[in-house]
């Protein structure tokens, strides 16, 4: 069967495209190329329709021109700070875009739908390991659009006989190869690379949190593991033509890594001195967000396989490929 991946030219989408193709699935991509890395290529034989999820004609062309039987919906804006400044933009892109794709999918007879969601739906979780049944109180418009998107997907699934899965990503990092790495510098690891290679100390946004070393703790997960979870979820959806599957699952490792621990790994991988400058807390940052990865293991027989060193080393290779001169002379090349 053929899968439509909206946003399939982006950082996570391209990893999923690659793994689905390797698993023998047919794939078509709809992407407006707004954040795709310049020069990034899709695998041979994967059709690309350049267009927005807000453009119903483009969505229909992608769905009907390729006999699509399932949709994996990645297309979305994902910067928390920007979402606070531009809520209309985020609701339009993330929710109106989703509704457009869902309506078009239902009308085209598609019965399988996967939504790319986020741990941002939980807001400030007050537990050691966040289970999917934890209260959802998002702290910003980005998280709100993801939570409302999950509701819309489930409700549409129930009303129209779609099988649905929403996957809540924790802190995604790394790359399967340098060409597939994240071109943005909006998260901890690339932000640290940016500072180090500009000759500046990395910043730690607050070292007075109630955590073992005072810095925030997150559940970092390799993007290749994120992709393999999607392949498992797609198989699950494909196996249910009756439209009864209704899953909301965390994708994490279930292991907390602090910002300071991450800086140590980055120092070891890159050879740079990562002694940080401690700054004030960044507003809205929860002290600890770590997934319970039990449910996804039970439901999809999936477990993360890659560790933090692999995330940092692969992200660094991608960074160096895009920033010639970033590598320190004499620093060891990560394996
Ligand atoms: C991680 C930790 C920072 C940069 C965000 C979204 C979330 C999801 C993933 C999309 C925090 C600290 C960072 C730096 C630092 N997004 N930090 N110095 O905020 O956990 O999650 O991205 O789906 O919804 O909220 O990720 O990488 O921005 O920060 O100390 O230079 O690193 O304060 O504690 P975050 P992040």
Summarize the structure in words.
- The structure is a single chain.
- The protein has 335 residues and is an alpha/beta fold.
- It is built from 10 helices and 14 strands.
- The protein has helices spanning 11-22, 56-64, 80-85, 87-107, 141-160, 188-197, 223-238, 259-270, 294-300, 308-322, and strands at residues 2-6, 26-31, 48-50, 68-73, 112-118, 163-169, 171-173, 203-205, 217-218, 220-222, 246-251, 257-258, 277-279, 288-289.
- The strands form 4 sheets. It has a 7-stranded parallel beta sheet with strand order 3-2-1-4-5-6-11, with helices on both faces. It has a 3-stranded mixed beta sheet with strand order 12-9-14. A two-stranded parallel sheet has the order 7-10.
- Helix 1 links the parallel strand 1 and strand 2.
- Helix 2 packs parallel to helix 4 and helix 6 packs across helix 8.
- It starts with a strand and ends in a 13-residue tail after the last helix.
- The mean pLDDT is 96.
- The protein binds UDP-4-deoxy-4-formamido-beta-L-arabinopyranose (WQD).
- The site of UDP-4-deoxy-4-formamido-beta-L-arabinopyranose (WQD) has 19 residues, from helix 6 and strand 8.
């Amino acid at each position: 069967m053929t899968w439509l991946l909206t946003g399939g030219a982006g950082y996570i989408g391209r990893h999923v495209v690659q793994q689905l193709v390797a698993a023998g699935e047919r794939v078509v991509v709809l992407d407006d190329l707004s954040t795709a890395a310049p020069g990034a290529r899709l695998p041979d034989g994967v059709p690309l329709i350049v267009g927005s999820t807000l453009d119903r004609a483009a969505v229909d062309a992608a769905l009907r021109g390729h006999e699509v039987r399932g949709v994996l919906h990645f297309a979305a804006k994902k910067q928390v700070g920007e979402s606070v400044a531009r809520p209309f933009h985020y609701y339009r892109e993330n929710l109106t875009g989703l509704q457009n794709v869902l309506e078009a999918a239902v009308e085209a007879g598609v019965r399988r739908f996967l939504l790319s969601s986020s741990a941002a739906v939980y807001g400030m979780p007050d537990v050691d390991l966040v289970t999917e049944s934890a209260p959802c109180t998002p702290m910003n418009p980005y998280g709100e659009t993801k939570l409302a998107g999950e509701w819309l997907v489930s409700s549409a699934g129930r009303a129209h006989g779609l099988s649905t899965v929403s996957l809540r990503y924790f802190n995604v990092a790394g790359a399967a190869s340098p060409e597939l790495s994240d071109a943005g510098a909006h998260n901890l690891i690339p932000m640290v690379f940016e500072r180090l290679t500009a000759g500046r100390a990395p910043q730690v946004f607050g070292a007075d949190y109630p955590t073992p070393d005072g810095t925030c703790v997150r559940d970092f997960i390799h993007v290749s593991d994120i992709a393999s979870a999607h392949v498992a979820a797609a198989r699950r959806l494909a196996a249910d033509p009756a439209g009864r599957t209704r899953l909301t699952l965390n994708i994490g490792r279930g292991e907390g890594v602090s910002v300071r621990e991450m800086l140590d790994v980055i120092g070891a991988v890159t050879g740079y001195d990562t002694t940080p400058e401690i700054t004030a807390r960044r507003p809205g940052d929860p002290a600890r967000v770590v997934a319970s990865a039990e449910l996804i293991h039970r439901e999809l027989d999936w477990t993360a396989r890659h560790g933090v060193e692999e995330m940092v080393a692969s992200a660094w290779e991608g960074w160096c490929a895009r920033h010639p001169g970033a590598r320190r002379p004499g620093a060891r090349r990560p394996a």
